[in-house]
Amino acid sequence: MFITLEPPSPDMDTEAVSAGFYESPGWNQKYRRIQILTIEELLRDARVQMPPTAQTFKQAPKAEQVQPGQLPLDV
Questions:
Q1: Is residue 16 within 8 Å of 25, Cβ to Cβ?
Q2: In a domain, 62, yes or no
Q3: 75 falls within a domain
Q4: Overall domain count for the chain
Q5: CB neighbours of residue 10 within 10 Å
Q6: Residue 14 pLDDT greater than 90, yes or no
Q7: What is the C-alpha to C-alpha distance for residues 74 and 15, in angstroms, rounded to an integer?
Q8: 3-state DSSP call for residue 37?
């Protein structure tokens, strides 16, 4: 990601496009390898286009809580 105060020049855009794309195997999408954003765009809530970083994992079952105290005697 390249952040700039001024809008990118045509040469900057050409260079960013010539860097190609990254293809995410997990999300089946293409993302620009070099992305140029201005400060103004960032202040307007622009975001870098990239694969999500949060991963989902299988959740473990909750453990049973043992009540404290003495166990009964079978007498």
A1: no
A2: no
A3: no
A4: 1
A5: 7
A6: yes
A7: 81
A8: strand
Query: For 33-62, what is the mean pLDDT?
Result: 86
Q: How far is CA 59 from CA 27, 55, 66, in A?
A: 21, 12, 21
- 11: three-class secondary structure by DSSP: helix
List of residues 6+ apart from 73 with CB closer than 8 A? none
pLDDT in tens, 18-45: 999 999 887 888 999 999 999 999 999 9
Q: Which of 49, 29, 28, 38 is nearest to 5 (CA)?
A: 38
Contact between 22 and 33 (Cβ < 8 Å): yes
**Containing structural domain, residue 33:** 2-43
> What's the one-letter identity of residue 53?
T
Predicted TM-score (pTM) of this structure:
0.62
